Amino acid sequence: MSTGLKHEILQDSPGKRVCLLGNLAIVRGGLEAGVQFFSCYPGTPSSEIGDTFARIAKEADVVFEYSVNEKVAVEVAFAATLAGARAMCGMKHLGLSYACDPISTMPYVGVEGGMVIVSAGDPSLITSPNEQDQRHFSRFLYLPVFDPATPEDARRMTRYAFGFS
């Protein structure tokens, strides 16, 4: 049963300020950039991104998919962007290692609609048992890395990343 109320992240009220954590700010930035497809393999510290897209997908007109692993999540998002959609893919920090095979070919093939990969890190071991700083992946994958310091940075950088891609 629908209440007719939009999820707060979907409300379009220019000038209205809302308090969002970083993961939700990334979702909002993707929506503002016109994301049409989102895939992910859920895992902390990135779980809220995929879970939020799962809840709002129909109302936001975003195709959403939980994938069987991070590699598949990247591959289906890449296929969506090759078809012209603006695509996002989300994963935890350790998943980036697993998804490197398809990611490493993307700079050479290029994208059509724009693609942003969100790899939520945990360099201080706050929410995960493994420490990894995935910013170093930029060097050998030949892809830019955006490293937001605040939720507002996360929203803006997600929008900017789509334009950059």
TrEMBL record:
Pfam families associated with the record: POR_N
Biological processes annotated in GO: response to oxidative stress
Keywords recorded for this protein, A-Z: Oxidoreductase
GO MF: oxidoreductase activity
Residue span, Pyruvate flavodoxin/ferredoxin oxidoreductase pyrimidine binding domain: 31-106
InterPro entries on file: Pyruvate:ferred/Flavod_OxRd (IPR050722), Pyrv_Fd/Flavodoxin_OxRdtase_N (IPR002880), THDP-binding (IPR029061)
Identification of the protein by name: Pyruvate flavodoxin/ferredoxin oxidoreductase pyrimidine binding domain-containing protein
Organism field: marine sediment metagenome
Lineage, highest ranks first: unclassified sequences, metagenomes, ecological metagenomes
